[in-house]
From TrEMBL:
GO molecular function: heme binding; iron ion binding; monooxygenase activity; oxidoreductase activity, acting on paired donors, with incorporation or reduction of molecular oxygen
Gene3D superfamilies: Cytochrome P450
The name this protein goes by in its record: Cytochrome P450
UniProt keyword terms in alphabetical order: Signal
Entry-linked InterPro entries: Cyt_P450_sf (IPR036396)
N-terminal signal peptide: 1-25
Length: 309
């Protein structure tokens, strides 16, 4: 038998072995689903980066896991809990809209643990509470829990009302005054409320006084410098700008392999290199702002900081 024939035979044998192994794993996963309805096979794990990137296309409409399906699949199968299998990992995936199941998962932490691997993409600046489990989660929670109290919740509400009134006074009321009519005015609230959310986070979460104002209002800051103060002059982006760009470029950063990022520094690639540079600058600026806030908090409350170590 020739070498070519041996290679072909070996490749076919390897493929057959992989096929049998995968089929066995799928059968085992289906058995673990028990009598749950659904049992579709998904090409991608629904809680990984690739699934997020292709959510608008896969799974197809009518399949379990379709991004825009809403509650239609639960109605289709007549159950508030349905099952599927991720082909790549051959693991069972449970989908639920059942309140009792959520309560059971919340209180039975030893048996039902967080899928930490799914949150790896969010560990941009290192370990955090969102992507932690077990002892690490408890440690992060112990540090963060003091921020979630009635006083801070009231402060967030107060800042939200202040910024909303600032927006109405600056952008909405003048529009009606110019039109001099009581007719309805159509406003796209998505970008407005996105900006308002960022300003609330900057003010209530990071202590950076934020304002909403137009460029024509000389008595206030412009929106471009909404969170700018003397402590930020050494940053290339203001806090608001850094957060806005970081959020918009998060998926791009997740899907761009490190080797491509390094290659773009050595070789200029049209569109890609400027996009990577903008993304890197935004993430580094946000990191610098966060370090400023943490540094200020440590300097003002050294005893509290030592108690967490």
């Amino acid at each position: 038998m020739s070498l070519k024939a041996l290679l072909v035979f070996g490749a076919c044998l390897w493929a057959l072995q992989k096929f049998i192994s995968k089929a066995h794993a799928i059968a085992q996963a289906k058995m673990s689903l028990g009598q749950l309805p659904g049992r579709n096979i998904l090409l991608m794990h629904p809680f990984r980066s690739a699934a997020i990137a292709f959510a608008a296309f896969l799974p197809l409409k009518g399949q379990i896991g379709h991004y825009f399906a809403g509650f239609s699949n639960y109605l289709k199968y007549g159950s508030t809990i349905i099952g599927s299998i991720a082909l790549w990992d051959t693991v069972p995936i449970y989908w639920t809209a059942d309140g009792g199941a959520f309560r059971a998962a919340s209180f039975d932490r030893p048996a039902i643990i967080k899928d930490v691997e799914a949150y790896e993409v969010l560990r941009i600046y290192g370990p955090n509470m969102v992507g932690a489990e077990g002892d690490d989660f408890r440690r992060h929670k112990n540090v963060a829990k003091s921020a979630f109290n009635e006083a801070n919740v009231a402060f967030v509400w107060k800042e939200t009302i202040r910024l909303l009134n600032d927006w109405l006074r600056t952008e909405v009321y003048p529009t009606f005054d110019e039109k001099k009519t009581d007719e309805a005015v159509e406003i796209d609230l998505l970008p407005v409320f996105t900006e308002l959310t960022l300003l609330v986070i900057a003010s209530a979460g990071f202590g950076k006084q934020a304002f909403w104002s137009s460029l024509e209002t000389s008595s206030q800051h412009s929106k471009e410098d909404a969170t700018h103060d003397t402590s930020e002059t050494h940053h290339s982006l203001t806090f608001s700008q850094a957060v806005t760009v970081t959020i918009s470029k998060l998926l791009f950063k997740i899907l761009t392999p490190p080797i491509v990022q390094r290659l773009s520094k050595a070789i200029y690639i049209p569109w890609l290199t400027p996009a990577i540079e903008e993304t890197t600058n935004a993430f580094e600026s946000l990191r610098a702002h966060l370090l400023d806030v943490v540094g200020s908090a440590r300097a003002s409350n050294p005893q509290d900081y030592e108690s967490y170590l």
